[in-house]
Amino acid sequence: MTRTTIDQVCPVTGEPLIAGEYLSRGGAARVRVAASSLPALMSDLAYAASHGVRTGEQAGGGVQRSRPPVNLGLMLEVDEMTDSILTWATLLISHVMGPSYWVRPGDWRMVASVFALYEDKLRHWSDGAQCADEVLYSVKRLERLASPGRRRLVYIGSCSQCGADLLVRDPEAETVPCGECGAVESIGEAWDRLLVQAREALLPRTRATRVAEILTGSAIKDATVRKWTQRCHLAPRARRGGVRLYRVGDIEALAAQATRRL
User: Fold this and answer.
1) Chunked in runs of 10, what are the mean pLDDT values of the chain (262 residues)?
2) Residue 137 in contact with residue 163, Cβ under 8 Å?
3) Cα of 85 vs its chain's centroid, Å
């Protein structure tokens, strides 16, 4: 397809593009710089996600909450953004090195290296502009999530009317107005939708186990989850690159069964 005049401008920086470019030198540099911040940024977010869990009593010896823990929404929102970044890093390295190459989930130094090593390749890749747009958006959103001001707000899911993020200061309140469309949303119903989203999430085994721990309120040993897979009680639902992805709800259900046997 012949590129038109409007296509000759970098969508990231507005700089003119030369023949064969889909992204300017400055645009590719912005992606490299953004990706270089990911190791420290993800460390900050991991700390934030590991704090603020609320627990309560449940009949039968487990743990139950009237509302999900405050960090559940953060974890799911982070997973959405990181999945986009990991997907693009894998697509880029596969484009350059071949389909047998992929990026390990959670290896943020490798992600940063991919965008640094193949900065020039990104400029001349037909998917480079879309990659840059989505990676820059995802990193910017992760930075907002990690900011001290944002941490005082709790993400409880999406508005049922317009899909915008619902953020509250008091997750125990009854309702919250959507900041985008003004619709008054029930916080309890938003939490319910978030729980469904959490249970249906497909994640690498260790990450899925951590989310399942938050849902159950109890520790789930990685060794126990490995035994479930070895005994065919737990099976991956999908694969991304060379990584098996597990449904969080499957691990939660097995953990609940194990608790009832105690």
Assistant:
1) 59 93 96 96 80 37 47 81 93 94 90 97 96 96 80 80 87 89 93 90 89 87 94 92 88 91 72
2) no
3) 9
* CA dihedral over 24, 26, 30, 36, signed as positive or negative: positive
Domain spans in the chain, listed from the N-terminal domain onward: 5-149, 153-200, 201-262
Amino acid in position 200: E
Q: Are 162 and 183 in contact (CB under 8 A)?
A: yes
175 phi and psi, to 5 degrees? -135, 165
**HSE-up of 19 (CA within 13 Å, CB side)?**
0
Q: Which two tokens stand for residue 167?
A: 């953020």
Query: Minimal CA–CA distance to 200: which of 99, 80, 109?
Result: 80
Assess contact for 68 and 191: CB atoms under 8 A: yes
CB-CB contact of 47 with 71 (8 Å): no
